């Protein structure tokens, strides 16, 4: 049974019609047209679908549209644009911190969640902050550099 | 002139300039490559090559990748060949184009050609102060000319763009949420498909209640064709829901079919094999000679090494999109080979290939032949139920793990001897393996797609065949690059294939260099020789020596400086014995209580000849090392007698951000040497460097991958008991 849900995504309000148990991931990608969160596993094991919900890192493959309703959802698109990149996005480009890039959106979101809580993480904290995200290409050492660069930039 | 003129790269397939580039849009250089991007940075590298030869800014270049309707047939994007094949073709095509442009400019400006200079696509005559752009000269026209043997590209000494780090063209879209992937493409009238796979290979559908799936809102079609089942729905969420509902409403007949997981390697070695002797990298059908240990052997070591079947395990499961319009089929796929895919689809659907257009679209990294072609076929199967509408299929995570073709398990048995002087005088290498190839075939009787096994008019899986070319499949990396006076290399192609297998990055190299470089360590320890010096004394090639010496210097190589539980391991290979040189060192720590291996730091020194994009080269080398470290420490496809039991990231774990090493990389830039692909150069040395580091740290020799804590702990306990 389709129902109407009011979502706040990247600061904008959206009304979508979906079954209550529909994963937020599919609503974002196909109904709202925000394709940065990716399907990777559907089981909270890879982080490709990461978004922020009320500022906390969440797995959009496992959060239902019903549970996301009324909360602040932030996707990669909400951080910055090519013209006005968020410092984390700028750092990922500066360090060329990607290979295929399928996990990149989730990693940038995980980095945002990490730096919001801990603006000056050491290597151990960075590793822990990204431990729920998988990268298969092996871009990890560049991602570490990007996170450190972003932390420096954000600290001004 | 009856002799065929040999042009470089892929130009013998098509030498027309217009097949490789176009200046048909003002200010833009369009370049067409038959190779495909999967995160390895090939688009950026070929853009650099084109921009360099044409003297235009890199920002002006647009790349169109493989499309049977628009690009040359460059076959597969595999074997680290893109730079040599496509890069070289574009280099010569752009050079030929530039020569034509300069002739046109000289005429237009009425000055001698050699007085002209080019700045970012504008040809200038300093003497007359006049100028004209490439685009004005072309006026939207085609070149209508071919590359000839006389075409002369720039001298590398004049390079300004090639050889310098360039930011990847594809990264911004991936950092800002652009529609970068096949899953993201916006297509009018798109429907979503999902496949309901059998629970195991060869399972037969006994009953299926299609009606329960049809009842789900948004479901357009439920497709059954023999054992092939799938859903077509208006929304992706509905397709996924219906897939799960239908799967639960099916009963299957399954059979026990797999060997005992705990005795996999004994099983492989005891099967019927096709035995060959590998001579100069080529398997030759002749009797395998007996091993004769030389009389002057001071130390002889025998050891057996093994690697399991392993998964490509792409982060983004395989996907495909297809649309039927009358008797025409359009397919979007992240295949490594768009033209071979088209040929196989033509056989699968018994239609002329001219009626099929295959267009490459990116997915997550594939690292060889994963489910890309199968998912494209699945999309075509499902789209038949809804003519005129595009259907996109993405496999679910467990589909990917259960149905992708794996990299073959391998067993390597070695026996080698050193003399009193510390020189290796005898080297025997026997490798047992299934095929490292398994792509779709252009054969009606067996096109090789999974859907072909399952549909009503089923055709069986093709008989597995390995690549028996020079340094081809299972024997890739089996012949040592070292200068040993006597070698005996035997390939035992194991005929029964319990699993679906195909090309996984580096093919046999991963197992073979693991064995080779581990055995070198074992011999050096036996003979009491330094591990670096022992390698160098058997390497004549100066470029090979240079990477070994460099990595040792970077890592501060000194076996004596490490305390208990810590150590370093080194390994080297030249990929395919003819491509990129790479040496790696791992700093290793072993926790005796838990058996956990830590690799805090790794070092790479490599020589790929001319590095077109040095940062892209480093990225590939580092990625290869981390992926191979993951294969080494964590990965094995698990199975019981009936089913594959690796179905998600918990049952098929890979290395995480907590566990990966930090990496220091050095790449020799050799501008006058041929550019060589780098995507598979660190795969071989990585497992051996880790194993050698574990031996240095803890005194146990790991010969079976993966190096799980349980295995390490058991071996350490055994070693302790033996002392």
* Percent helix of chain B: 25-40%
The helicity of chain A comes to: 25-40%
Shape of chain A: globular
Shape of chain B: globular
CATH topology of the largest domain in chain A: Ubiquitin-like (UB roll)
Number of strands of chain B: 25
Query: Mean of the pLDDT scores of chain B?
Result: 96
H-E string of chain A: EEHEEHEHHHH
Which strands sit side by side, in order, in the main sheet of chain B?
Answer: 9-10-7-18-15-16-17
The major β-sheet of chain B equals: 7 strands, mixed
- Could you give the order of strands across the largest sheet of chain A? 2-1-5-3-4
Calculate the terminal CA-CA distance of chain B, rounded to whole Å.
75 Å
Number of helices of chain A: 6
What is the fold-level CATH name, i.e. the topology of the largest domain in chain B? Answer: Aldehyde Oxidoreductase, domain 4
Report on the architecture of this protein:
The complex is a heterodimer of chains A (156) and B (723). With 156 residues, chain A is an alpha+beta fold. Chain A has helices at residues 24-32, 65-68, 87-94, 104-117, 123-129, 140-155, and strands spanning 2-9, 12-19, 50-53, 56-59, 72-74. Chain A has two domains: 2-78, Roll (Ubiquitin-like (UB roll)); 87-155, DNA polymerase, domain 1. Chain A contains six helices and five strands; from the N terminus they run E-E-H-E-E-H-E-H-H-H-H. In chain A, a hairpin with a 2-residue loop joins strand 1 (2-9) and strand 2 (12-19). The longest helix of chain A is centred in the last third of the chain and has 16 residues, at 140-155. The model of chain A has no long low-confidence stretch (mean pLDDT 97). Chain B is α+β, with helices and mostly antiparallel strands. Chain B folds into three domains: 17-173, 2-Layer Sandwich (Aldehyde Oxidoreductase, domain 4); 185-255 and 313-403, 2-Layer Sandwich (Aldehyde Oxidoreductase, domain 4), CATH 3.30.365; 410-436 and 472-722, Aldehyde oxidase/xanthine dehydrogenase, molybdopterin binding domain (Aldehyde Oxidoreductase, domain 4), CATH 3.30.365. Helix content of chain B is 27%, strand content 21%. Chain B is built from 17 helices and 25 strands. In chain B, the strands form six sheets. Chain B has a seven-stranded mixed β-sheet, sandwiched between helices. Chain B has a six-stranded mixed β-sheet with strand order 13-12-21-20-19-14. Chain B has a four-stranded mixed β-sheet with strand order 22-23-24-25. In chain B, a hairpin with a 2-residue loop joins strand 9 (219-225) and strand 10. The model of chain B has no long low-confidence stretch (mean pLDDT 96).
